[in-house]
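Assess this one:
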Amino acid sequence: MKLDNFPQVRLSNKISCSIIGGGMAGLVAGNVLQQYGFDVTVLDKGRGIGGRMATRRISHADHGDGIFDYGVQYITAQSEEFKKWLDEWIEIGLVEKWDCASRSAADLESQKYRGVQSIRSIAKHLASNLNVHTGKRIVAISWREASWKIFADDGASYNSNLLILTPPLPQTIQLLKDSKIPISEISLERLRRITYRMCLTVLAIASGPLRIQQSGSCHVNGDQLEWIACNRLKGISPDCYAVTLQANAKFSEQHYAPAKRESAAQALIHAAKQYLGNSSILEYQVHVWRYSTPINYFDGTFFSPQPCSSDSAAVGPLYIAGDAFSTGYEKISSLENAFLSGFEVAMDICQKQKVS
């Protein structure tokens, strides 16, 4: 986001903030905080940044490179703040309108957008001016000597004054537990109530054109297959018919175990037969989104848990954000929810740190 869209105020003293999780919430929080003068570090366990803003390339000897958006399929916007950011992305050619199928009744009347190059290009743009470290699975955190100490599984460590956690809540809770952070049981129980849908996804290279609408998408809503997209028609896979198949939540939950994924992939390919026409699937890969979208939500746009100890120095400034936090909008997309959560937690931190 351009600096002139922010109030012209800055921190008088440099404050460091580490953000665990490089999805929409973490990247937006990082951008806002950095604009206000914070020293921001983003740590993400993935090889590529973006969380469910995910794109993968699969090469085939005879058909070239297939490029797949295999997480978030499109963007919608309800809030004025997200619309401002979306307008800027459109202006710089990062995002454009996509008249695709709707995955929910709420989306029928909403304009939908796609990343011009890919959905991950949005994440890359948000990360472009941040200090980002990928491939960093965080295994422990601790508050010592007025600083957060953060430890990755590869031996790397990081220090900061503030800490924001944006992974899915079960992963955040596990990290807090493994790290023995003294958070009250009431706080933990509130976080444990949040549950998520799964989504089993097949990334398949087809031998030729599909029988699908010109946008390259279809909300199947079947017993197994929920969504199919041809990324070539979508406009991001020019050399190859790269097909994204996404299962519904029930089927995904029944088949997410590694031993069942091969049969699940075959079932989804069979369910997509009418859309494949005379084309065959040449090769495919399977990915499971264990925490695809929230089923229920935490009451609040983010959470700053209180320590169970009476000693206020037991835990430093700690914030939890992400798509599972309620932003007050009905039927809002998970992606926009994550955006608003990340934006609100950053603005709250700025207020508490008396940015001036």
Observations:
- The chain has a mean pLDDT of 94.
